[in-house]
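Retry 2 of 3 after timeout on previous attempt. Resubmitting structure tokens to design endpoint.
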């Protein structure tokens, strides 16, 4: 089919002459061309406010599956966006959940946040781990309780454990029965599944060292164990955190689980375990930039591993220039080697894209070490502003 006929077909659809357009579409037999035509028609219908009509064409296009993996992900993203526009959140989640975790963009994760399924919690965690702030994802969340979950997790990431624990406790009091929140997240969950159980008790709570609220969810649910592991790790209960991450490991061997295990092993000086775990991560998820950054993190702790660590950090940044774990790891390595100018230049280049408390603290410490007190004060002040 020539480009003039492609234009003719699009004009027919845009002008509502559907029978003639459908006849032209049916006449096309070459699969790749048909795939392109179906996608074009679906896009045209979606653009002109006919989202419901576009569904059939997007579905047929997905069924043909003649694009590259990247093109198919882009197609699924467009289709899911249309579903969200017409408030078919469940269908949006079904379309996107097949995309591997390490290939989910921020846009995909934000769409999953609106899917009102258990996977929306995993999407929330992934977005916050990308470095986004709570305010940046709040608009993508349809449910107040999911917003509370996101805010609590974000509090934990920025080290405000007291505020985070208060939010977990409010959820625990609201949902003493695990199935209540499960129903709210996914109306298709039956009572026997018992996926979520938010605990409403907390022992030995103190402002100095608050105990993490254990989210006792079903053993099949990944996020519950990861969140529990993160709070245990941040409150220096590394052995208990390892148990939580091990439970997550049994469900899914993803980057966040490997990171949790490695960081706990490093805190306990269990270098053999840390080395074995990062090597497994490289084998299991070789295309994930964060697995390369994780390798660099371990190798920075080994006296003869610094050169290899720098190599891994650079590989991670080549795979994903926004891999903040690699940015922080490489800048810390250079700081340890007293290559302060290189570390500062690297971090400063990421400030416009990662306005967070942590990046300003790191820059403040670097400028302090290089005796540039004015700039150090500026960054520490910025860090306090983001914390507040």
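Retry 2 succeeded. Sequence:
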């Amino acid at each position: 089919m020539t480009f003039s006929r492609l234009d003719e077909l699009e004009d027919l659809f845009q002008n509502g002459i559907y029978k003639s357009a459908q006849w032209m579409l049916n006449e096309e037999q070459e699969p790749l061309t048909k795939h392109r035509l179906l996608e074009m028609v679906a896009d045209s219908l979606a653009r002109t406010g006919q989202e419901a009509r576009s569904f059939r064409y997007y579905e047929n296009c997905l069924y043909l599956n003649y694009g590259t993996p990247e093109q198919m992900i882009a197609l699924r993203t467009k289709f899911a966006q249309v579903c969200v526009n017409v408030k078919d959140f469940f269908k949006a989640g079904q379309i996107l959940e097949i995309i591997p975790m390490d290939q989910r963009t921020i846009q995909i994760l934000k769409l999953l946040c609106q899917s009102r399924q258990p996977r929306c919690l995993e999407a929330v965690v992934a977005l916050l781990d990308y470095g986004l702030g709570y305010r940046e994802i709040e608009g993508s969340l349809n449910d107040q309780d999911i917003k509370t979950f996101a805010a609590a997790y974000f509090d934990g990431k920025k080290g405000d454990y007291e505020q985070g624990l208060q939010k977990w406790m409010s959820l625990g009091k609201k949902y003493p029965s695990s199935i209540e929140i499960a129903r709210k997240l996914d109306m298709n969950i039956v009572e026997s599944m018992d996926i979520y159980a938010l605990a409403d008790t907390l022992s030995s709570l103190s402002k100095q060292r608050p105990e993490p609220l254990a989210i006792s969810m079903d053993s099949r649910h990944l996020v519950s164990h990861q969140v529990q592991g993160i709070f245990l790790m941040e409150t220096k209960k590394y052995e208990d955190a390892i148990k939580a991450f091990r439970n997550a490991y049994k469900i899914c061997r993803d980057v966040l689980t490997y990171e949790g295990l490695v960081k706990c092993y490093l805190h306990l000086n269990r270098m053999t375990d840390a080395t074995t775990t990062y090597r497994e991560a490289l084998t299991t998820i070789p295309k994930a930039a964060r697995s390369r950054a994780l390798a660099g993190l371990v190798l920075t702790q080994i006296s003869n591993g610094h050169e290899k660590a720098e190599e891994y950090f650079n590989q991670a940044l080549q795979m994903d220039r926004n891999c903040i774990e690699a940015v922080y790891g490489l800048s810390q390595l250079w700081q340890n080697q007293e290559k302060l100018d290189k570390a500062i230049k690297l971090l400063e280049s990421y400030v416009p894209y990662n306005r967070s408390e942590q990046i300003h603290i790191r820059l403040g410490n670097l400028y302090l070490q290089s005796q540039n007190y004015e700039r150090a004060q500026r960054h520490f002040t910025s860090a306090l502003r983001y914390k507040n």
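Attempt log closed. The radius of gyration is 24 Å.
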